[in-house]
Amino acid sequence: MNFDVNKIRKDFPILSQKIYGNPLVYLDNAASTQKPAIVIDTISKYYSGQNSNVHRGVHYLSMMATEAFENARKNIADFINAENSNELIFTSGTTESINLVAHSFGRKFISEGDNIIISTMEHHSNIVPWQILCEEKNAKLSVIPINEEGEIDFEAFGKRLNEKTGLVAITHVSNALGTVNPIKKIIDLAHSFDVPVLIDGAQGISHFKVDVSELDCDFYCFSAHKMFGPMGIGALYGKEKYLEKMLPYKAGGEMIEKVTFEKTTFNKLPFKFEAGTPNVAGVLGFNAAINYLKELSIEKTSAYESELFKYATIALQEIEGLRIIGTAKEKISIISFLIGDIHPFDAGTIIDKTGIAVRTGHHCAEPLMDRFQIPGTIRASFVFYNTKEEVDSLVKSIIMVKNMFE
Q: What's the rounded Cα separation, in Å, for the pair 180 and 99?
């Protein structure tokens, strides 16, 4: 495959450093990805030469910043093939996007006795907001079970759908298992009951092409920092037919049309949901990351990651006593595992001393860990700047851990 990973690695300044005297092997990409120089430079350029608040300003810097800000919105909306850029709302990330829908959609469309469907593999950010909403509305949270491989029970999902279902909120890809859910199939079945669907896309959107129009999802939530962009910025895609009817999530600033002491009228989409001073630098950095991904070609990066994932899976499976948690047929490059009876925290601490960054713990998915009756896992997550040599280094480190505890 024509994919020069060594050339690509030079785009990421942080990857050239050493940790404890060893080359950095960064395998915590499911938590947050590293940033290419173009993203870092874009943010620096904004603050050093364009810094100004956006919208309404008539001076040069404000107009320049506003144009760049809104062009970024159009570009990111195009990246996911939204029908209209007004359907793309900037948020602080996936968590806020989900909370926005829980608050604004929930307040308008969820009633007492309704049920909201999620799955066992959800991140806490796609559990807790719905729990809060259900308590406020006296609604019910219904959970789709999963099998031993880490795949949802689709038949059980179908049985949970009924005329009282108000929303399905499900992850595109499990952050703890790497499972890719059959999103299109889920959406089509939910829509046959006239039930809207929210997708937590935090883990999926940087690994494969996401087309919200083709999926026909009603909401799609994602974060820049998991797709090589800055932290503290993300987006909510929502169908206009719902966004128009939903009340604002926050109040103040850009979300108003007119304010009097007697009554306030709200701004048009998407500004109705963007109260206060936006993270302009974050949006421009987000846009730079999108352009970087487009230039690389997500089809090529996805193919490379798939090859690397297969290599890593085979290599880890050959380690005696290592158990992979989550063996779904459809997975992205996330491998969660346990090494015998060694606690994940202990293993992760030792692995770190060899310069390898992995994540340990419950990965903000405690109910999922309870499902497998484990305290947590060690998680190695790979992207297109990782290499087979780094996989080999991880294998050596794991074997060292094993030997220390024998």
A: 23
Q: What is the CATH number of the domain that holds 66?
A: 3.40.640.10
pLDDT in tens, 100-110: 999 999 999 99
Is 236 in contact with 221 (CB distance < 8 Å)? yes
User: pTM for this one?
Assistant: 0.96
Q: pLDDT tens digits for 358-383?
A: 999 999 999 999 999 999 999 999 99
Q: How far apart are CA 4 and CA 361, in angstroms?
A: 33
Q: Is 364 a catalytic residue?
A: yes
Rounded distance, CA 123 to CA 127, Å?
Answer: 7
Query: What confidence score (pLDDT) does residue 1 get?
Result: 57
Amino acid at 403: N
Q: Which of 134, 217, 221, 364 is catalytic?
A: 364
Give the domain extent around 365: 5-30+297-405
pLDDT in tens, 235-294: 999 999 999 999 998 998 888 888 889 988 888 999 999 999 999 999 999 999 999 999
Counting other chains too, the contacts that 69-72 makes at CB distance below 8 Å and 24 or more residues apart are: 69/278, 69/280, 69/283, 69/284, 71/287, 72/283, 72/284, 72/286, 72/287
How does pLDDT run across 287-325, given as a tens digit for each residue? Answer: 999 999 999 999 999 999 999 999 999 999 999 999 999
Task: List pLDDT tens digits, range 8-63.
Answer: 999 999 999 999 999 999 999 999 999 999 999 999 999 999 999 999 788 999 99
What angle, 0 to 180 degrees and rounded to 10, lies between the N-to-C axes of helices 298-317 and 280-296? 80
282/230 Cα distance (integer angstroms): 6
* Domain end position, chosen among 264, 294, 324: 294
CB-based contact 337:322 (threshold 8 Å): yes
> E strands along 40-150, which residues?
88-91, 115-119, 140-144
CA distances to 110, 129, 369, 402 from 405, in Å? 52, 41, 24, 5
Domains of the chain: total: 2
Q: What is the rounded distance in angstroms from the CA atom of residue 235 to the CA atom of residue 94?
A: 7
Of 277, 294, 311, the residue at which a domain comes to its end is: 294
Distance CA 88, CA 19 (A): 39
Answer whether 233's CB lies under 8 Å from 224's CB: yes
* Cis ω for the linkage preceding 270 (within 30 of 0): yes
Please indicate, yes or no, whether residues 302 and 261 belong to a single structural domain of this protein.
Answer: no
What does the pLDDT read at residue 252?
86
